[in-house]
Design brief:
The chain has 196 residues and is of the alpha+beta class. The protein has a single domain, classed as Cyclic Phosphodiesterase, Chain: A (Alpha-Beta Complex). It is 25% helix and 37% strand. The chain has a four-stranded antiparallel sheet.
């Protein structure tokens, strides 16, 4: 983790769980198969694959110390846990899918507790509007063009394969830096899960 940017800098932030490298590799193979089949999408680069707990959006760097403390507090009461990445799906319906994802169909109770603790800890830092319900998933890509409709409507929801397990003992605050070749995610803080 690098030195903090100046306090007036605006950072695009989110809170997420890293994935086991074997899970990222398995999901990268799914993306490669879809690309080979002609599916056009803005793909999430495999190193960026993660499970988002909360998107904060544009935030002044001056708030980083308070956000780090809030994440430490949220993580302190949750023990390490495991979750399985299984199945594929889309948001937006089969005719016009907006997001292709891999699911967490059987989230452990610790995952919901952690998401709730993070949401509470970051109450004043979230974007305005009602909070979105937590629907655990890993974004694989955002489809573009007609091939997306044909391929996602051809049985995406019927794929029920396991892509592996991730053991979680930490949660990270990420900064998303937009580049010409896509977003680059940098961890700006990491909190260990310490509950018993």
């Amino acid at each position: 983790m690098n030195a903090d940017p100046p306090p007036e800098a605006v950072l695009r932030l989110f809170v997420a769980l890293p994935l086991d490298p074997s899970v990222r590799r398995a999901l990268a193979e799914v993306q490669a198969r879809w690309r080979k089949a002609g599916l056009r999408a803005a793909w999430t680069p495999p190193p960026n694959l993660h499970l988002t707990l909360l998107f904060l959006g544009d935030t002044f760097a001056a708030r980083l110390p308070a956000l780090r403390a809030a994440l430490d507090a949220a993580a302190a009461g949750i023990p390490p846990f495991r979750f399985e990445v299984r199945g594929l799906g889309s948001f937006g319906g089969a005719r016009a899918p907006r997001v292709l994802w891999a699911g967490i169909p059987h989230p452990p109770p610790e995952l919901a507790r952690l998401a709730g603790a993070v949401g509470t800890a970051f109450e004043g830092a979230r974007p305005p509007g009602p909070p979105r319900p937590f629907r655990p998933h890993i974004t694989l890509g955002r489809p573009r063009g007609a091939p997306a409709v044909a391929l996602t409507s051809a049985g995406l929801a019927r794929i029920d394969k396991s892509y592996g397990w991730t053991r979680t003992d930490r949660v990270r605050l990420f900064r998303s830096v937009l580049r010409a070749q896509g977003a680059e995610h940098r961890a700006v803080h990491e909190s260990l899960l310490k509950g018993t």
